[in-house]
Amino acid sequence: NEHFPYWMYVREGRRMVSSYVQTELDCRRTRTTPHSVGLGSYNMDSHNCQRHLDEHGHVRNEGDVQVSPRGPYMISYEAIVPKKEECHNLLVPVCLSSSHIAYGSIRMEPVFMILGQSSATAACMAIDNNLAVQDVSYDALRERLLADKQVLDIPANSVAPTGIDPSKLPGIVIDNDQAKLQGDWPSSASISGFVGKDYIHDANAGQGEKSVTYSLKGVKPGNYEIRVCFTPQANRASNTLVVVQYAMGSSEVRVDQRRKPTLEYGFVSLGKFRVNGTDAEAVVISNAGANGHVIADAVQLLPVK
Question: Are residue 175 and residue 293 in the same domain, yes or no?
Fold first, then answer.
């Protein structure tokens, strides 16, 4: 077919809405998922929705989402069966009951294979016992699935470590989710030691077009040591540009993000500055001239005499 697919790949269409809807809360394991029939673990991703020109005439892609669940999560049996009042002999391992964001992770073919096996087992049990699929005993289903080597529980030590709680750090901490972004900055949590739920990076692309601005507006006037944190790696930029815009002017600092930070909690010092908490004051991380991936995580202000 001249190397063109015979069928268009439809990633996502209509999805069932049942008594339980898998959401980001399940993928992040922030709520207890009932009656597991399999695990997922892929990024919650959604591709760009549109392309447009920004105010500078540059082409921008908009809508990309890439958020890691940082480990496996459980998928509920109730999410693969419809509401009983709607249908009692149907199992849905593909277009299951899920939010758009959660489906960005669940949609992977290995997960479809896992849910297909669990669905087939439940279907056989429903037929053998003349039951609606909603009335299949979960305890009996779980026992049979485990006997068939299906993995239903999250393995020990398989979840990535959580980030450092910014509220437990001294001074003023401004995390990356409070910053203003210029350009695309995908989220990541693959390297431990970050502050908050994640850090962001420039994907080593668009040098000079991307920045992260941490506003100092509202900070109590005073003298501060300003620090930034990052997770070091060999593919990072050794010359990340950080600009401190403060009361007396601005200061440019080049940070080597390949070297392990020497201060507690993975921070490096940018220096001591007078901050008045005005609109014009900020810490800006830029990828201008960067020779590798630029990481943006948290900014910390520690009062000094």
Answer: yes
